[in-house]
Design goal:
By secondary structure, this protein is mainly α. It is built from 4 helices and no strands. It is elongated and about 50 Å long.
Length: 92
Protein backbone atom coordinates (compact mmCIF):
# COMPACT_ATOMS: atom_id res chain seq x y z
CA UNK A 1 0.00 0.00 0.00
CA UNK A 2 1.38 3.36 -0.96
CA UNK A 3 -0.16 6.74 -0.25
CA UNK A 4 0.04 10.02 -2.07
CA UNK A 5 0.86 12.20 0.93
CA UNK A 6 -1.05 15.36 0.12
CA UNK A 7 -4.49 16.78 0.87
CA UNK A 8 -6.10 13.39 0.14
CA UNK A 9 -4.47 11.74 3.16
CA UNK A 10 -6.96 13.23 5.67
CA UNK A 11 -8.47 10.44 7.70
CA UNK A 12 -5.67 7.99 6.84
CA UNK A 13 -3.22 8.91 9.57
CA UNK A 14 -3.43 5.54 11.28
CA UNK A 15 -2.79 3.70 8.01
CA UNK A 16 0.20 5.96 7.29
CA UNK A 17 1.55 5.26 10.78
CA UNK A 18 1.34 1.50 10.17
CA UNK A 19 2.99 1.81 6.75
CA UNK A 20 5.82 3.93 8.13
CA UNK A 21 6.23 1.57 11.08
CA UNK A 22 6.43 -1.49 8.85
CA UNK A 23 9.04 0.20 6.67
CA UNK A 24 11.20 1.12 9.67
CA UNK A 25 10.87 -2.35 11.20
CA UNK A 26 11.70 -4.14 7.93
CA UNK A 27 14.59 -1.94 6.83
CA UNK A 28 15.99 -0.61 10.13
CA UNK A 29 15.66 2.81 8.54
CA UNK A 30 16.20 6.06 10.40
CA UNK A 31 13.37 8.54 10.94
CA UNK A 32 15.02 11.01 8.56
CA UNK A 33 15.55 8.42 5.80
CA UNK A 34 11.98 7.18 6.19
CA UNK A 35 10.69 10.74 5.86
CA UNK A 36 12.64 11.22 2.64
CA UNK A 37 11.40 7.91 1.24
CA UNK A 38 7.74 8.73 1.91
CA UNK A 39 7.89 12.47 1.27
CA UNK A 40 6.95 13.55 4.79
CA UNK A 41 8.90 15.40 7.47
CA UNK A 42 10.92 13.61 10.12
CA UNK A 43 8.58 15.15 12.71
CA UNK A 44 5.61 13.52 11.01
CA UNK A 45 7.37 10.16 10.90
CA UNK A 46 8.34 10.40 14.56
CA UNK A 47 4.82 11.38 15.66
CA UNK A 48 3.23 8.66 13.56
CA UNK A 49 5.47 5.85 14.81
CA UNK A 50 5.59 6.89 18.46
CA UNK A 51 2.13 8.27 19.20
CA UNK A 52 -0.30 6.96 16.59
CA UNK A 53 1.29 3.56 16.07
CA UNK A 54 1.28 2.84 19.81
CA UNK A 55 -2.53 3.16 19.80
CA UNK A 56 -3.16 1.38 16.49
CA UNK A 57 -0.67 -1.51 16.52
CA UNK A 58 1.19 -1.98 19.85
CA UNK A 59 3.15 -5.02 18.61
CA UNK A 60 4.54 -3.14 15.62
CA UNK A 61 5.19 -0.13 17.86
CA UNK A 62 7.44 -2.29 20.06
CA UNK A 63 9.43 -3.44 17.02
CA UNK A 64 9.81 0.12 15.77
CA UNK A 65 10.81 1.37 19.21
CA UNK A 66 13.68 -1.14 19.27
CA UNK A 67 14.91 0.05 15.86
CA UNK A 68 14.66 3.70 16.95
CA UNK A 69 16.63 2.98 20.13
CA UNK A 70 19.33 1.18 18.13
CA UNK A 71 19.53 4.10 15.70
CA UNK A 72 19.75 6.55 18.58
CA UNK A 73 22.65 4.61 20.09
CA UNK A 74 24.47 4.59 16.75
CA UNK A 75 23.83 8.15 15.59
CA UNK A 76 27.06 9.54 17.01
CA UNK A 77 28.95 6.99 14.92
CA UNK A 78 27.08 7.97 11.74
CA UNK A 79 27.74 11.62 12.54
CA UNK A 80 31.46 10.98 12.92
CA UNK A 81 31.58 9.11 9.62
CA UNK A 82 29.74 11.94 7.86
CA UNK A 83 32.15 14.52 9.30
CA UNK A 84 35.15 12.44 8.24
CA UNK A 85 33.78 12.10 4.69
CA UNK A 86 33.07 15.84 4.56
CA UNK A 87 36.65 16.77 5.41
CA UNK A 88 38.10 14.13 3.09
CA UNK A 89 36.03 15.63 0.28
CA UNK A 90 37.19 19.16 1.12
CA UNK A 91 40.86 18.14 1.21
CA UNK A 92 40.74 16.68 -2.30
Amino acid sequence: MSFNYDKNIKGHFDERAVELGRYIAETNSTVRATGKKFGVSKSTVFTDVTVRLKKVNPALYNEVRQVLEKNKEERHIRGGIATKEKYLKISK
